[in-house]
Amino acid sequence: MIPVAATHAAIWLVGTNEPFPADARKPLGMMRGVADELDRLAPGRFEHWTPRYLAQYANPNSYGESRADGVQRAHAAIELVRRRGLIPFVAGYSQGAASANIATDESPYVPCGYLLSDPLRPAGANRTGQVGDPGYRAQPDQHEFRGFGVGGQHRVGRARWYSIPGDVITDCSPGSLVRDFADVSEWFSIAGPQGVHTWATETLEKVKGGAWQNAPFWARFFARGDLAKVLPQLPQIAATSLAEATGYPKVHTAYGARNFPGTTYTYVQQMARDMFFDSAYGSGVL
What we know:
This protein is α/β, with parallel strands linked by helices. The chain has helices at 31-41, 63-83, 95-106, 177-185, 193-208, 215-221, 224-230, 234-246, 267-279, and strands spanning 8-13, 46-49, 87-93, 113-116, 159-162. The mean pLDDT is 86.
């Protein structure tokens, strides 16, 4: 077979605590299934880049610090592949999807981000992107989604989302107590006194800045006039939150096994097929 010169680069951001390849190229973990399918569909079209970032959650570095490191490493990889004359596509899973989301939003050079179980998935984001995308396919079962990403909503215009309904990381119900855990633990670290100081400072800023996701509910809860109204809601909120928490990680790790709705392909295979489809246009055209 005559070697094909690569035209694109797939920049892979792995999930929390997933391993990194020794050569920093083809990813391991959940993203490996996407990379393998992409190579099968378009041999040689993509170079693989897997930036080594913290990929941690509190042990020892905080999730917030780790996510920011992922964004920074993604930007560095984007710059490197552009120097090679390649078109960068950024893809991520779980924590890596959050970093990919932000990096794609911040970079004018990335035609599209591919986000598998994005903790920042906005409510209503379609599994294959947004209306107007060339590969858009309306999904009849959007009502299955309970909510949006456990870390909040960050809508980047050039992205495709792949989310299993009920995966608490990317489909957490509004008002869930899991959101409170995500907010309070975002900057928590066991890295020492400085980590504790950063956690306290960032958490206080989140509260003061109105970024605490369930702040309106708790404000009503602690207000005398509303307590009688919101107190009866707590048992149902607690039951829903517990069900979401106990469903993890079974659903969260099923993207390589479950079929994408309306297809015979798994979620990771569908992501590869969309990357292949978009790359055929040279620039991604999203």
